Amino acid sequence: MISAVTYNLQGKKIESTPLPKNIFEVKVKPVLLAQAVRVWLSNQRRGTAKTKTRSEVAKTTAKPYKQKGTGRARHGSSAAPIFVGGGIAHGPSGKQNYKMSLPAKMRRLALLGSLSAKAAAKQISVITGAEKASGKTKQVGWLAGKKTLVLVTKEQNKFKQAVRNLDQTTLTTAEGLSAYTILAAKQLVIAKEALTELKKTYAA
After folding, report:
1. What is the pLDDT, as a whole number, of residue 164?
2. CA–CA gap between residue 198 and residue 41 (Å, rounded)
3. Nearest alpha-carbon partner for 193 in 133, 108, 138
4. What angle do CA 54, 59, 61 make, to 5 degrees?
5. Does residue 11 share a domain with residue 81?
6. CATH number at residue 134
7. Cα distances (angstroms) measured from residue 90 to each of 50, 51, 78, 79, 124
8. Which of 35, 168, 190, 39 is nearest to 115 (CA)?
9. Could you say which DSSP state residue 95 is in?
10. Both 152 and 166 in a single domain?
């Protein structure tokens, strides 16, 4: 069975914690992980970018030059897209919808696959004694240094208070996990109690 190194609140290695096989040893095709990441990133886009069309730019409505005799192509407006300062053709309207969805079964499988990938790469560790946290950041300063995702429970307020100010460290719960947030992190740190919640949520 795969296991994770376990540390106490001071960062001292104390034991190894076995990780459940049905969560951390799930084989998933890489294409599913890529799809889950693409859907997550797409759903973060707000779609507020907008360009002005030829009817919206502030340009005179006068004909730029006479119709005949100049040897140039005929034009009736300097707001045309081919002119500098003219409107933009086929630009974003500000109403784009980038929302995508992934079936619940695929989303769950991608999440388990990302957890399994982290476990296989030995990028998962467990921390015990989170309930004894004082709320001071210096108590868990050893966690800083690289992009870390810390999995906690909703009740671990003092521990969350201590961790949230660490550089390159993100907090989440079992319900808030996604394949992207797991794969984007260099290290996944799971509080002992949060590991229990993870089993209840995803082991079924």
Report:
1. 87
2. 24
3. 133
4. 90
5. no
6. 3.40.1370.10
7. 11, 9, 17, 14, 47
8. 190
9. -
10. yes
> Can you read off the two tokens belonging to residue 17?
């914690």
Co-location of 112 and 174 in the same domain: yes
pLDDT value of residue 204: 61
Tell whether 62 and 155 lie within a shared domain. Answer: no
Q: Are residues 127 and 180 in the same domain?
A: yes
Whether residue 90 is found in the same domain as residue 104: no
| Enclosing domain of residue 72 | 50-97
**Same-domain pairing of 176 and 193:** yes
How many domains, the chain?
A: 2
- Give residue 187's pLDDT: 93
Label residues 132-146 b or e (16+ Cβ within 10 Å = b). ebeeebebbeebeee
Mean pLDDT of successive 10-residue segments in the chain (204 residues)? 88 89 92 96 92 93 92 93 93 91 94 94 91 85 86 89 88 91 94 89 74
Q: Which of 67, 97, 127 is the endpoint of a domain?
A: 97
Q: What CA–CA distance (Å, rounded) separates 31 from 112?
A: 14
Rg (CA), the chain: 27
Per-residue pLDDT, 189 = 93
Residues 6+ apart with CB under 8 A from 122: none
> CB within 8 A of 73, min separation 6: which ones?
none
Q: Are strands 13-18 and 3-7 parallel, antiparallel or unpaired?
A: antiparallel
